[in-house]
């Protein structure tokens, strides 16, 4: 499927309701065949690497990829699957966990703005400023009226970034409650995955409906023309990676990054 056609299925149209509950976390028709999806993802990962090289050479613009999703939704797996072909120099990953004392002493966007990618880079956020209208809202970590103001603040912040050369791609990894149970169970069963398990994840799972509602609200209110949201069916890891790979590749290609032309003539030099 052409990436634009794929994108139509996952985009949250600015101004429209996100309708998260009606979105299918499987969506088998988007990439019916696993082998084909894996092949496509590999091709996209290579192409992303090549385009990133040009982006760096050009050093005028940046790409910011925001990954959001509840525990086990596959944020780390997406990073491995889609950006694995890129060298470590061109991709900067920032994971946002519970804010430190220092971070809490500033406004919530302070740490986020500092992590925004510089020109030439692809920045990936593993969680993001959206936690400040998700976990913070569900667990009531800030006053309700302060949280209410954040949707507009986030939209303005993202507008500021886009007007300053940062293209923003936001992906919500959408999994079903059953799939999360299986993935959490795996983390308990497999000693190699114990490190990923956190008892707090079960507290969050118990708040499943509240999280879904908070996601639905932020998808609706923060899908803007300058930085729209995309809801990615993520129950199948290979389909998730193929979809995100295709969209990141498509968008990067449209940016047309290119190697700058030298202002000297390579033929005028001889090396002995
Ligand atoms: P993990 O991504 O599993 O390493 O966990 C990071 C944890 O940090 C998650 O439980 C998030 O909900 C939490 N977190 C991230 N950002 C914030 C924030 N702004 N305020 C409170 N908790 C946060
Ligand atoms: Mg966690």
Features:
single chain, 272 residues, alpha/beta, Rossmann fold, five-stranded parallel sheet, 47% helix, globular, binds adenosine monophosphate, binds magnesium ion
How would you characterize this protein structure?
This protein has a single domain, classed as P-loop containing nucleotide triphosphate hydrolases (Rossmann fold), CATH 3.40.50. Helix content is 47%, strand content 11%. It contains 11 helices and 5 strands. It has helices at 3-10, 34-58, 75-83, 101-104, 110-114, 135-138, 144-163, 177-189, 199-206, 208-221, 237-255, and strands at 62-68, 91-95, 122-126, 166-174, 229-233. Helix 3 (75-83) packs across helix 11. It is globular and about 70 Å long. The structure holds adenosine monophosphate (AMP) and magnesium ion. Magnesium ion is lined by residues 71, 198, 201.
Query: What general form does the structure show?
Result: globular
Our measurement of the CA-to-CA distance between the termini, rounded to an integer number of angstroms, reads 52 Å
Structural class: alpha/beta
- Are there runs of 5+ residues with pLDDT below 50, and where? none
Counted up, domains total 1
**Strands side by side in the biggest sheet:** 2-3-1-4-5
- Within CATH, the superfamily carries the name P-loop containing nucleotide triphosphate hydrolases
CATH topology assignment = Rossmann fold
CATH architecture: 3-Layer(aba) Sandwich
| Helix proportion range | 40-55%
């Amino acid at each position: 499927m052409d990436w634009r056609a794929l994108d139509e299925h996952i985009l949250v149209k600015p101004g429209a309701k996100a309708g998260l509950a009606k979105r299918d976390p499987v969506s088998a028709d988007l990439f019916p065949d696993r082998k084909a999806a894996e092949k496509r993802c590999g091709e996209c990962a290579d192409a992303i690497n090549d385009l990133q090289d040009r982006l760096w050479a050009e050093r005028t613009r940046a790409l910011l990829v925001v990954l959001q999703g509840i525990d086990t939704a596959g944020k780390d797996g997406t990073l491995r699957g889609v950006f694995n072909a890129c060298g470590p120099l061109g991709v900067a990953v920032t994971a946002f966990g519970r804010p430190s004392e220092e971070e809490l002493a500033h406004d919530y966007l302070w740490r986020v703005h500092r992590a925004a990618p510089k020109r030439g880079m692809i920045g990936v956020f593993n969680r993001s400023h959206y936690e400040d209208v998700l976990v913070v809202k569900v667990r009531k970590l800030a006053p309700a009226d302060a949280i209410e103001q954040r949707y507009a603040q986030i939209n303005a912040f993202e507008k500021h970034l886009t007007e300053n050369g940062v293209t923003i791609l936001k992906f919500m990894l959408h999994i079903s409650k059953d799939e999360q149970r299986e993935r959490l169970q795996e983390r308990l069963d497999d000693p190699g995955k114990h490190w990923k398990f956190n008892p707090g994840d079960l507290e969050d799972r118990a708040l499943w409906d509240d999280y879904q509602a908070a996601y639905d609200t932020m998808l609706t209110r923060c899908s803007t023309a300058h930085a729209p949201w995309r809801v990615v069916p993520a129950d199948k890891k290979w389909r998730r990676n193929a979809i995100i790979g295709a969209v990141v590749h498509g968008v990067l290609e449209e940016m047309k990054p290119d190697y700058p032309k030298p202002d000297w003539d390579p033929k005028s030099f001889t090396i002995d």
